[in-house]
Amino acid sequence: MIKKYPGAQPLNQRGAVLIISLVVLTVLTIVVLSANRGVVIQERMTSAIRESNVAFQSAESGLVEAELFIETIPGIAIFSDVGANGLYTQNNGPADYSDPAVWDPGITRLAAETAPGYETRYFIENLGAFAIGGIAQDISLNNDYSQPEIDTVAEVFRVVVRTVGPNGQPVRIIAGYYSANLN
Length: 183
Description:
31% of the residues lie in helices and 21% in strands. The protein is of the alpha+beta class. Strands 1, 2, 3, 4 and 5 form a 5-stranded mixed sheet that branches. Strand 2 and strand 3 (119-131) form a beta hairpin. It is rod-shaped.
């Protein structure tokens, strides 16, 4: 049963509470959406950093693989001026590593895949033979320390490695030098 108070008039409701509620709800929605945008941006940044690290580690792995490959080379005769199979003679290696044509198959070697979707390629340039004996008295190469030191000649190689991520990004290029006694 509804009680009526004497002298009470019906209130004129014009929807003011509804309008204020909608304004508050709109402001809260904007605050939540802007907070979500920040989270999405942070997630993208974290993903980019991770992909960059994976690409760098893949390039490092390619460098190690190239060094191991150098140890299996039967001699410098397999190097060519045009870089057949990624092996260049002295002063004939590519200079502009950022040029995508440098990394074509046939003039580079494909490294083993270390991360799904990442392609790692490398090339090796023979820089020539260098005498490394006699540089330091307390270093002995291929010596059991009881033999007198002799001049040792080693071939020096420049190894350049490039890794490309799954969607063409990120790209990491690293270079290193390696010496070996090719007999």
